[in-house]
């Protein structure tokens, strides 16, 4: 009788180990996808020197190719000291923040991109973790400075 009871305990340990490993792999792949989406959005913002109509179209195209989707996400008005300028595109859930709304005295802008890592595990509801990335400095060159 001690044999089958011991085997059941070992099977339970193996099943728990497999569930933990698959949860870890699923989390890693979800984080990778969210970070990849952030990097692509940041590259687009830097390519078009800010958030404008051209960058919006490019972001839609890139996110369509990556297959990024998040069911439920929320954008706060401020995040890490940055101000929200756009959120929740009609097709994809991402938030874009800017360091200053007005042209700063130092002459550059810094954008922030917030996407969500979507983790959908069995027996657990969908969990969203925020992934935040900042752009490099983008200088604003003007001939006249507004006062």
Q: What's the SSE blueprint?
A:
Elements (H helix, E strand, L loop, with lengths): L1 H46 L5 H14 L11 E2 L2 E6 L7 E4 L9 E2 L1 E10 L5 E9 L3 E2 L8
Antiparallel strand pairs: 1-2, 2-3, 3-5, 4-7, 5-6
Helix pairs in contact: 1-2
How would you describe this structure to a colleague?
- This protein is α+β, with helices and mostly antiparallel strands.
- The chain has one domain (2-139).
- The protein has two helices and seven strands.
- It has helices at residues 2-47, 53-66; strands spanning 78-79, 82-87, 95-98, 108-109, 111-120, 126-134, 138-139.
- It has a five-stranded antiparallel β-sheet, covered by helices on one side.
- The termini are far apart.
Q: What summary fits the major beta sheet?
A: 5 strands, antiparallel
Overall body shape: elongated
* Global Rg: 22 Å
Spans with pLDDT under 50 lasting ≥5 residues?
none
Number of domains: 1
- Fraction of residues in helix: 40-55%
Number of strand segments: 7
Structural class, judged by helices and strands?
alpha+beta
For the largest sheet, list the strands in their spatial order.
Answer: 1-2-3-5-6
Mean pLDDT, all residues: 79
Distance between the termini: 87 Å
Beta-strand portion reads: 15-25%
SSE order, as H and E? HHEEEEEEE
Instruction: Provide a count of the helices.
Output: 2
């Amino acid at each position: 009788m001690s044999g089958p009871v011991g085997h059941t305990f070992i099977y339970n340990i193996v099943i728990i180990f497999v569930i933990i490993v698959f949860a870890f792999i699923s989390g890693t792949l979800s984080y990778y996808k969210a970070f990849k989406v952030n990097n692509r959005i940041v590259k687009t913002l830097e390519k078009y020197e800010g958030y404008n109509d051209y960058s919006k179209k490019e972001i839609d195209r890139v996110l369509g190719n990556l297959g990024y989707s998040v069911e439920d996400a929320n954008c706060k008005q401020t995040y890490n000291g940055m101000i929200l300028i756009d959120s929740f595109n009609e097709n994809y859930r991402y938030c874009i923040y800017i360091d200053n709304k007005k042209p700063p005295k130092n002459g550059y802008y810094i954008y922030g991109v917030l996407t969500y890592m979507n983790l959908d595990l069995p027996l657990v509801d969908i969990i969203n973790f925020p992934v935040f990335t900042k752009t490099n400095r983008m200088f604003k060159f003007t001939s006249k400075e507004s006062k």
